[in-house]
């Protein structure tokens, strides 16, 4: 069996990672090359102007760290700037609905672009190949073109959430977007249609030749700044100049003798550790996978972690996050006791809406045992493409809380909470799972269930990412359409509101690699279009 593998939600991106490793690149080279291609072939999910979190484990160098690149609010942002515009909050907690959609679509929704600087830092620090070589696959796809896949079309054509813009409106927000991604009648391109992006190819050529500085200090920075100034955007030249990713040690947790390395706040790793601590108090295998009691117990753990996230988790530079308490075993004992007693947690929400989803993920292991797990995103994309640049900006302002004085409130330079939790599970001193997912608020919930599927139910990686999932980030339990009705009827009889999705997939899109004695076992969530490829 293979000793190197990559798993990602886009086949073109995974193939690029394989070719890079075959050319002598390592796990970081493959991950960054894959990420750059993802920004071309899934342009509303991620890109140069996005954000994310990357776990890097290089045992030969005794290095294990997270490069966190959560997009900060621009320096022009103010805590009370949108306080009087609030209409509601999405049911899953992923963003606020404001009058005029000022935080949701358009120039006002954009936070400082973070992804490219993190890609460049990681590759220069850990990569084995020249930076310019890593960028070439993305240039090729942008120039020669790619065909729209089923999940890309699904996201583009998705209906609007409560008060937020639909995918088609985001695609067509600027003339560049309409020209790239829409048919002559203005509707989004469909499965099999070709997309060519010569403007993005040109930007990537500059980035290949000059590195990230051209984006943050040079001619691309000038183009970005001019466009923001002309259209009332918050991002300034000073924002671009000042931005730096953060480098942190992992946040650690333990579950049934396994050790979990994940990211720190404002990432979602803290939720993952809290939920695993709670669920360690239950014999999940004895309950049965996706049984009535299993759904109740896991859903209540999800709700409690969601409540704590909303109250306590924000950017640690701006808010005192009680990490030790939330990830402590004693606190988990208290919460588990409530669940055992049948207590239902109440998740406060300002209004109700539909769960949101976006983002993408990469899991890589190379032949030297180096591991990379990276989740990166545009948030709910802003829809803005600067004429001549070809990439879409993030829409991260939508998730900030417009009410001052809270963990997620707006502040200049502050990063918003994100559920991204790229993680590595260790068995003893060696990696056992390299895992993560796209899926907005549902990311931690999807990663949690895939980990439980492997550790408690002895599933393969493919089985673990393919099993039917559910989520509880509000008072309701959301389930995919493969969770049987005879299970959900019993939950409803216990007083739970169950919201059934018409889709058989959803609640994050988990991609992972499992390390076995015989080799690597990769899984690509069948709800997306990706693959796990051996090298």
Report a brief summary of the structure.
The chain is an alpha+beta fold. The chain has 19 helices and 20 strands.
Describe this structure in words.
With 535 residues, the protein is of the alpha+beta class. It has helices spanning 11-22, 27-41, 115-126, 131-144, 150-156, 167-171, 175-181, 198-210, 213-216, 219-230, 237-242, 269-279, 284-287, 292-312, 323-326, 329-340, 443-455, 461-466, 485-493; strands at residues 5-8, 51-58, 63-69, 86-89, 96-98, 146-147, 194-195, 246-248, 251-255, 258-262, 360-365, 371-377, 423-427, 430-436, 470-471, 477-479, 498-500, 511-516, 519-524, 531-534. Strands 8-3-2-12-11-1-20 form a seven-stranded antiparallel sheet, covered by helices on one side. Strands 9-10-13-14-18-19 form a six-stranded antiparallel sheet. The longest helix is centred in the middle third of the chain and has 21 residues, at 292-312. The chain is globular, with a radius of gyration of 21 Å. Residues 352-357 have low confidence and may be disordered.
